[in-house]
């Protein structure tokens, strides 16, 4: 009578498992981590009155179209903080989903303001399909509040970098750097326009 054969102990399969484990983990990391964007840099900013600032910028998001090409990226959070000069009158850190394009100080009201924009159609839909691609904010009482865009800002040129690269920016971005890169940007990202047509 043939003796019953017992199954091999599970421990005998561990060597093969441990050989493929690093590959499995690598694939998992690539699938979950390669699409993330998390960058920071400082940049020079000129206010309308000629004052020069250094601001610290941060951007988080996810890359798009990675298979077969570099594609673009979608921001999920942008931050903006005045690094120099450090004054008691500086506004708090601005942190929003949108892309800041203009930072300045309104002397009569003693308020800082930011004009931000967006790139994705989904953002336009989420904002209620506004006539212009902008969201305005003012610092009031130590915090930022969303406010209607003032027509007085029509024609004002952007003084912030609006197209950060998903792969990262130089440690410091100068005004000259932004001028060169802005030459190929659409008009609505170079200045606050009073009319706009979307393809969304």
Structure at a glance:
With 200 residues, this protein is of the alpha+beta class. It has helices at residues 14-33, 121-126, 175-182, 187-190, and strands at 36-46, 52-63, 73-84, 94-96, 99-106, 111-117, 135-140, 143-147, 172-173.
How do the strands and helices of this protein lay out in sequence?
Blueprint: H1 14-33, E1 36-46, E2 52-63, E3 73-84, E4 94-96, E5 99-106, E6 111-117, H2 121-126, E7 135-140, E8 143-147, E9 172-173, H3 175-182, H4 187-190
Parallel strand pairs: 1-9
Antiparallel strand pairs: 1-2, 2-3, 3-4, 5-6, 6-7, 7-8
Task: Report on the architecture of this protein.
This protein is α+β, with helices and mostly antiparallel strands and 200 residues long. The protein has one domain. The protein contains four helices and nine strands, in the order αββββββαβββαα. The chain has helices spanning 14-33, 121-126, 175-182, 187-190, and strands at residues 36-46, 52-63, 73-84, 94-96, 99-106, 111-117, 135-140, 143-147, 172-173. The strands form two sheets. A five-stranded mixed beta sheet has the order 4-3-2-1-9. A four-stranded antiparallel beta sheet has the order 5-6-7-8, with no helix packed on it. A hairpin with a 2-residue loop joins β7 and β8 (143-147). The longest helix has 20 residues, at 14-33. The radius of gyration is 24 Å and the shape is globular. The protein starts with 13 loop residues before the first helix and ends in a 10-residue tail after the last helix.
């Amino acid at each position: 009578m043939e003796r019953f054969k017992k199954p091999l102990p599970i421990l005998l399969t561990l060597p093969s498992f441990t050989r493929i484990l690093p590959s499995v983990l690598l694939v998992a990391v690539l699938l979950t981590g390669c699409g993330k964007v998390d960058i920071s840099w400082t940049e020079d900013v000129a206010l309308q009155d000629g004052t020069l600032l250094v601001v610290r910028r941060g951007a988080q998001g996810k890359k798009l179209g990675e298979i077969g090409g570099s594609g673009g990226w979608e921001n999920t959070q942008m931050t903006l903080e005045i690094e120099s000069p450090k004054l008691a009158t500086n506004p708090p850190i601005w942190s929003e989903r949108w892309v800041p394009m203009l930072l300045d100080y309104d002397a009569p009201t003693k308020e800082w303001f930011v004009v931000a924009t967006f790139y994705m159609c989904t953002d336009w839909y989420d904002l209620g399909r506004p006539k212009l691609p902008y969201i305005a904010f003012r610092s009031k009482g130590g915090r930022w509040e969303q406010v209607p865009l003032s027509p007085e800002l029509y024609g004002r040129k952007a003084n912030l970098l609006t197209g950060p690269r998903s792969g990262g920016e130089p440690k410091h971005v100068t005004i000259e750097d932004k001028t060169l890169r802005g030459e190929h940007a659409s008009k609505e990202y170079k200045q606050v326009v009073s009319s706009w047509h979307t393809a969304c």
